[in-house]
Amino acid sequence: MSHSFAASSEHWMIQPIGYIYSPYKQKFGVARQPGLVPAAHAYIDLSAEFTADCVRGLSDYDYIWVQFVFHATVKDGWQPLIRPPKLGGKEKKGVFATRSPHRPNHLGLSLVKLEQIEYGKQIRLHVSGVDLLDQTPVVDIKPYIPFVEAKPDANCSFAHERELLNVYWSQPALEQLALFSLDSNYYQLVNQSLAQDPRPVHQQHADKIFVMHLFDWDVLFQIKNNMVEVVGLRKHV
């Protein structure tokens, strides 16, 4: 059962300052956390009113915080209790103890690497290590300051680094990679994304072929005995 807010006299209007354009065209397959897929390159186009003055000095930082809206889940409302995939969907945690997109205000926060700032008719920030759906609305950007924000010894409950799966490509899939002139970064994007095991916890069937939509292509794969096989590529229609 989804929830909605009770009527309140206090509210604020938040408007996007821009949008992010990423390889993840659907929710299935999106990196579960920022930084887990370094090959996930994207860019943020700021709205025209945000000129070069707004990003003056930002290139002095290696990483930035991107605050955004989980726009694809707004219609679903929010849940007070969440079943984190990390726990196999067997245990519930409070929404504020998780990073679930099903939140009261549907706001998210990602730490991404700032690769380049492009100046033109509008400011474009090139970033990597993203975990954001294509065309996600961005509502704020801040620089990451390690000496203040990095807490490597902090307790993080159940959210520990997971073991990666091995990924290999079938010969037909490798031939399709070459046929479609997809570069080494796309190859790494697929490998890094699949190594995280993007399957929902309730769909762990060894004989099932899954489809992940990255850029303009569908990646067909299956997982058996903790091994991922890329079985094919096809143009997304």
The second-level CATH architecture of the largest domain is Beta Barrel
H/E series: EEEEEEEEHEHHEEE
Low-pLDDT windows of residues: none
Write down the Rg.
19 Å
> For the residues shown, what is the average pLDDT?
91
How many individual β-strands? 12
**Superfamily (CATH H level) name of the largest domain:** YaeB-like
How many helices?
3
Q: Given the helix and strand composition, which structural class is it?
A: mainly beta
CATH topology of the largest domain: Elongation Factor Tu (Ef-tu), domain 3
Percent helix range: 10-25%
Instruction: Report how far apart the termini are.
Output: 33 Å
What is the overall silhouette? globular
Reported for the largest beta sheet, the result is: 6 strands, antiparallel, barrel
Structural domain tally: 2
Give the percentage of residues in beta strands: 25-35%
CATH top level assignment of the largest domain:
Mainly Beta
Q: How are the strands of the biggest sheet laid out side by side?
A: 1-2-7-6-3-8
Domain TsaA-like: 14-153
GO biological process, one term: methylation
Keywords: Methyltransferase, S-adenosyl-L-methionine, Transferase
Protein name: tRNA (N6-threonylcarbamoyladenosine(37)-N6)-methyltransferase TrmO
